[in-house]
């Protein structure tokens, strides 16, 4: 899933990247589903669980954009608390949580250090780094 436009990002590069992946495809035995996710807290809370229920995926990759990143950044965890910014509907949860009662952090079960090393070893002209803070 790539995200839609928000803030100064009139076009969200994450959505462009996901569309390109859809054009290229993966292997024939991979059932790839691509979605543009609106940058709206309440929509995400409804849409993502509905997509999980509909597709029962083995792997979900959320692709985002950062105005500060200078590399492809693999996130080790996503945070639930500390959200103070308004979404595209000018809404922010009063609790500053994405999911009420949810865990403070969700750690990826994928070994991002190994992924980073393997991608770097391919010799592509792409810098890849690891992050423990996906931001808010």
Q: Write down the secondary-structure element order.
A: EHEHEEEHE
Q: What is the terminal separation in angstroms? A: 17 Å
Rg over CA atoms: 16 Å
Helix vs. strand class: alpha/beta
- What ranges have pLDDT less than 50 throughout 5 or more consecutive residues? none
Largest sheet, spatial ordering of strands: 1-2
Count the beta strands: 6
Q: How much helix, percentage-wise, in residues?
A: 25-40%
What is the multimeric organization of the chains shown? Answer: single chain
The helix tally amounts to 3
Shape: globular
The major beta sheet can be summarized as: 2 strands, parallel
Strand percentage lies at: 5-15%
Number of spatially distinct domains: 2
Protein name: Pyroglutamyl-peptidase I
Pfam family, one: Peptidase_C15
Family: Belongs to the peptidase C15 family.
Function: Removes 5-oxoproline from various penultimate amino acid residues except L-proline.
Structural description of this entry:
This protein is of the alpha/beta class and 136 residues long. The protein has two domains: 1-65, no CATH class; 66-135, no CATH class. The protein contains three helices and six strands. The strands form three sheets. The protein has a two-stranded parallel ribbon.
What labels describe this entry?
single chain; 136 residues; alpha/beta; 3 helices; globular
Set out the fold topology:
Blueprint: E1 2-3, H1 13-24, E2 36-37, H2 41-55, E3 72-75, E4 77-79, E5 105-107, H3 112-121, E6 128-131
Parallel strand pairs: 1-2, 3-6
Antiparallel strand pairs: 4-5
Summarize the structure.
With 136 residues, the chain is α/β, with parallel strands linked by helices. It has helices at residues 13-24, 41-55, 112-121, and strands at residues 2-3, 36-37, 72-75, 77-79, 105-107, 128-131. The strands form three sheets. The chain has a two-stranded parallel ribbon. A two-stranded parallel ribbon has the order 3-6.
């Amino acid at each position: 899933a790539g995200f839609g436009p928000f803030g100064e990002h009139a076009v969200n590069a994450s959505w462009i990247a996901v569309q390109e992946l859809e054009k290229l495809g993966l292997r024939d035995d991979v059932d790839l589903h691509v979605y543009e996710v609106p940058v709206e807290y309440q929509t995400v809370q409804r849409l993502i669980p509905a997509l999980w229920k509909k597709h029962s995926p083995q792997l979900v990759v959320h692709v985002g954009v950062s105005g500060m990143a200078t590399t492809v950044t693999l996130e080790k965890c996503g945070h639930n608390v500390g959200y103070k910014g308004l979404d595209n509907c000018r809404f922010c949860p009063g609790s500053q949580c994405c999911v009420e009662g949810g865990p403070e952090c969700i750690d990826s079960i994928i070994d991002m250090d190994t992924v980073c090393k393997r991608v770097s070893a391919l010799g592509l002209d792409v810098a890849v780094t690891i992050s423990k803070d996906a931001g808010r």
